[in-house]
Specification:
Blueprint lengths: L9 H22 L2 H31 L11 H5 L1 E2 L5 E2 L3 H5 L11 E4 L1 H6 L8 E4 L4 E4 L16
Parallel strand pairs: 3-4
Antiparallel strand pairs: 1-2, 4-5
Length: about 160
């Protein structure tokens, strides 16, 4: 009675390991920077959403009080004022409470910056986001650079 093959030969195992190694060498560089790219996408989306909200707030105030000289972007204080369900003003910031963390610093606070700093997209302090009230400029408070297109996260 002749016994059959019970396992794989050493050569077969080595060939499988070489194939797995080749596949890993191809796949790993493709996914190496995926979390960084996701952070940049998050910054882009958040900046777009907040800028839209600020523009809507400015437009609403212009429409509701056409005779007013209210022709400026909302201030940090105005953004932070909200009315509770009872109609009483409180000082909690609805934007801070729903604001996602800036992904590179992992902080969701917003700081006011000057016009010069806003135009230059100056990075300073430990807050996650910067807002220039005179120009309506909102950007991430980070100097991280996107390897795909060499733009800084604060340029979005």
């Amino acid at each position: 009675m002749k016994k059959g093959k019970l396992g794989f030969t050493l050569i077969e195992l080595i060939i499988v390991l070489v194939i797995i190694g080749i596949l890993a060498a191809i796949a790993i560089p493709k996914f190496h920077d995926i979390s960084r790219r996701a952070k940049f996408a998050s910054v882009k989306g958040t900046c777009g959403n907040v800028r839209s909200a600020l523009s809507i707030a400015k437009a609403n105030n212009l429409i509701t009080d056409a005779n007013s000289t209210w022709n400026y972007w909302p201030t940090i204080t105005e953004i932070k004022l909200s009315e509770s369900a009872s109609g009483v003003s409180d000082t909690t910031c609805p934007l801070d409470s729903v604001m996602p963390n800036e992904p590179f610093r992992n902080v969701n606070t917003i700081s006011a910056v000057t016009t010069t700093a806003g135009r230059a997209r100056t990075v300073a302090g430990t807050d996650g986001w910067n807002y220039c009230m005179t120009e309506g400029i909102f950007y991430a408070n980070t100097s991280e650079t996107n390897a795909d297109d060499s733009t800084d996260a604060n340029e979005y």
